Amino acid sequence: MPPSENLIMAAKEMFPEPSFLECGFGELEHKVIAREVCCLCGSCIAFCPRIAQKESRPALVEYDPLCGLCYAYCPRTFLDMSAIEEKIYGRTRDAGEALGIHRKASAAKALPLATAAQDGGVVTALLTHALDSGTIDCAVVTGRNNKWEPVPIVATTAEEIAAAAGTKYTISPSVTGVQMAMDQGFSKIGFVGTPCQIQALRKVQFLEEPYQFGQDKIALLVGLFCMENFQYDLLMEGLVEKTFGMKPEDVVKFQISKGMFKAQAKDCEKEVPLSETDPFVWKGCGPCFDFASELADISVGSVGSPAGWSTVLVRTDMGEALFEGAQAAGKIESKAATGKGMALCSKLAGEKAARFQKNVEEMAASGITFDVLR
Fold first, then answer.
1. Roughly what angle, to the nearest 10 degrees, separates helices 122-133 and 317-328?
2. What is the pLDDT of residues 186-244, one digit of tens each?
3. Which one of 1, 2, 20, 336 has the largest count of C-beta atoms within 10 Å of its C-beta?
4. Is 68 left (phi over 0), alpha (psi -120 to 50) or beta?
5. In terms of residue numbers, what domain contains 359?
6. CA dihedral 83, 84, 88, 91 (to 10 degrees)
7. What are the φ/ψ torsions at residue 167 (nearest 5 degrees)?
8. Do 138 and 176 belong to one domain?
9. Rounded to whole angstroms, how far apart are CA atoms 235 and 118?
10. What is the pLDDT of residues 197-213, one digit of tens each?
């Protein structure tokens, strides 16, 4: 065998080729984006300089070398939940673990409660403690402009984290904030986001591909409970402006509570049954089964706890250390989650899983496949 061939063989043994070397943006476009199963998590935009966001979707802006990176890390091309669970928890979830693997379920609230917080202010308190304790050196959060358009922010102070508090309720490619943090030189990045965004970052961390772009700098994942999310222009034009008669910039707070979608302005509050918001839901939310951000270090949501409190699911060593540390530092107060509260959370998780199964079957009938292994 010629020396050059020996060198090539040695290089292939030392540096494995990507699993999806021939799957470029064209395959991502065909399988995910064109079929409207894209969750717009932002992972392809964040980690490939040839992809950008155009009109609420990823778009190729430079030549595609078919490296396979965007296809590999998209949570909607394939998702082996069992394999990721094994790497995070050392086991796979049991059939009865509707909310995913977790060590502890609590109701918690921040001390004192941040005024802009959505419910218990727990996420703000946890991220602030993570910064103060050196667990992270920045937190990627989702802020907004005065028209409620979501904006990824790299926060480095408690004030910046608190300023971004509150649910935005519209789809945002927030994973792009992780790349922003890497570009700014941070090495212990905390991230808070929805289940699909957490799935994307876990694929980035654990998928055995020869791409090294800083995934070791992702230090903490805080997941949010999420049933579905909305498309910005549809929600603002169709609901806020047309139905509520408000301007987006006049809205102080959005909230989903007791089956109602609410928009609060300084001088009034408008609401509609949540079922009437279906036309404004992001279509890519349909093929999603994860209610409680099952792959996060710690998950937080308002469902299942009293008003002013949040439900917290501690999942990993990192999540447990953060939660206990925040309590010891007097940043949060907690009590055991109630059986009734957990039953409600499990019910919603089951409803989302059932909706996912129905959507997958409908897509399959149309020739659309979605590869999820649980």
1. 90
2. 999 999 999 999 999 999 999 989 888 999 999 999 999 999 999 999 999 999 999 99
3. 20
4. left
5. 18-231+281-373
6. -30
7. -75, 140
8. yes
9. 19
10. 999 999 999 998 988 89
